[in-house]
Amino acid sequence: MAGFLIRKAKMEDVRPIHALLNFFAERRELLPRSLSEIYENLQQFFVATKNGKVVGCVALYVTWDNLAEVKALAVASEFQGKGLGKRLLKTTIKEAKKLGVKTLFALTIRERLFEKFGFVRKKKSFLPHKVWTECVRCPYFPEACIETSLTLELGSKKKKNKLDSFTESFMSTSEPMVPAEPAKETSWPPPPPPNKN
User: Fold this and answer.
1) Where are the domains positioned within the chain?
2) How does DSSP classify residue 82?
3) Phi-psi region of 72 (alpha: psi -120 to 50; beta: other; left: phi over 0)
4) pTM over 0.70
5) pLDDT single digits (tens) 52-77
6) pLDDT tens digit string along 91-115?
7) Under CATH, domain 4-170 is a member of which superfamily?
8) CA-based angle 75:118:110, to the nearest 5?
């Protein structure tokens, strides 16, 4: 692991992050991200660098009260298997704890990495509607979703009050636009998206 540095992303990292994420988007492993989206959310990103070059990234996105998502976790192909994904995920968990996040979640086709950190599978309907705003851009949405939702509890559960009950009812996800659960562990590479014509 010598020579790798994990740090908060800077302006100069936007184009390398964009290239890295879209490399995996072309392989249908991540959602594509525009340059403007990365610029707008730059403060959420961490990068892994080697000799000053971005070789991995991850984002921590706070979605609601006590809830945050691990997004855009990617490591360049030639640097995979060196523990960088683990280090990026560990950094994100640490940052979520610093912010006081109680529940961290991820939508992924790579469950095993997250499970090593204690993430457990949860039905997608457990997560608030707000989570699915990006899903509409995915060719697999909603009938053929290939991602699994996983959560990690970071803090003790607080006693519910009236505001929590209101929040839960407001954010309830019993609506039909929640992506379908994968029938079984996703094959690799993912199948082509369904024809929507």
Assistant:
1) 4-170
2) S
3) left
4) yes
5) 999 999 999 998 889 999 999 999 99
6) 999 999 999 999 999 998 889 999 9
7) Gcn5-related N-acetyltransferase (GNAT) (3.40.630.30)
8) 35
